[in-house]
Amino acid sequence: MDVWISIILSVCAASTPLLLAATGELVVERSGVLNLGVEGMMIMGAVAGFATAQVTGNPYIGALVAIGAGALFSLLFAFLTLTLVANQVATGLALTILGIGLSGMIGEGFVGQPGIRMEGLNIPFLSDLPIVGQLFFGQDLIFYVSIALVFGVSWFLFKTRAGLTLRSVGDNHTSAHALGINVIKVRYLAVLFGGACAGLAGAHLSLVYVPQWVEGMTAGRGWIALALVVFASWRPGRVLIGAYLFGAVTIGQFHAQAIGIAIPAQFLTSLPYIATIVVLVLIARNRRMTMLNTPASLGQSFVPDR
Description:
This protein is about 70% helix and about 0% strand. The chain is mostly helical.
């Protein structure tokens, strides 16, 4: 039983960054913006969170700074694509490359230093319960934030007037503008939210999952988060399921190596990315599934009164 609990806790830890980044990107894409800079924002959050925790000795302050770093990077993306109307795809790719390079420079002095881990919560009585206590009442704070965020985003998008406004901007920004909605403002706020989520996802990597700084430690998780949004057909609940499926694949390859399965380690390491490609190919074969819930204005620039 202890082994199974350990595996489940590992899956939760591996899935949380994916869930956070994908939930934030879902809101961004629902507003009609395609942000391919998630990887860069995640890794900037990871280095900012780790560095701040080392300097202050407090991982919670590190997580807050990571949120700010992700939001700041997303603000640069928003300025370039929404104000200067730069190409969203090219800008996102450029910011990912910038984030990877800049994080390597900032984190150079922190390589090899032992990190300050964000420990799990200890809720009196509840955390001491057998099995249930470890799984549900002894996780780190960011894990609970990620779960709450999924339900909060779902409620916001489908139960509030502001969520309806955001979805209308993503579905038809011209009509939304004609109705008096400030399209650029809505998209700015959505992009900032997505960047903050990506920054927090990076903080989870460097403060919880692997409490240390390693250059390039996001290892393509930002791209998997982007694929998860498509996999979930832009629905928050499905993002939750998809994130944990991909997290299970990630952890599964480690356990497969541990028990000595005679498969090359390189193949096992590539399994999460192979799974991503397979899922995208299967979705692409069904045009109805591809178009389901897809924001009609996704990736389209908007300039008022032009």
